[in-house]
Structures are given as structure tokens and as C-alpha cells.
Prior knowledge:
The protein is mostly helical.
Amino acid sequence: MDNQSTKRTVFMISGGLDALLGAIALLIYFDVLPIDLDIPRWIIGVIGGILFFSGVAVFTYFLTRTDS
């Protein structure tokens, strides 16, 4: 694999994992996963939202980016 393809793959994996972790945090925030953490719920919601949407944005950008 060339360097550009490797970078693209790494960023796509990173974005996907960020989106997955953000989705889990949002599931905890919306009480779908009944996990009690010792931090306020609104902080979990903010962190989950930021992780999820930034992960989706990074993944989508590198997925639709051309190879030129």
C-alpha cells in the first residue's frame, strides 16, 4: 500500500471508532444502556455528541475524498 492509501485507511478507522464510542456514550446518555457513571449525564451527552459527529465527519470525508 502506498502512503496516501495508508493514511486514508488509518483516518477512516479512527473516524469509525470515534463514531462508535460516541454512539455508546449517547446510548448511555439517553438511558438505553443502564450504566451509572459518577459524572453528570449532560457531560456524557456533550462528549458523546462531539465524538459521534466528528467521527462521522472524518469517516465521511475520507470515504468520499478523491485520490488525486
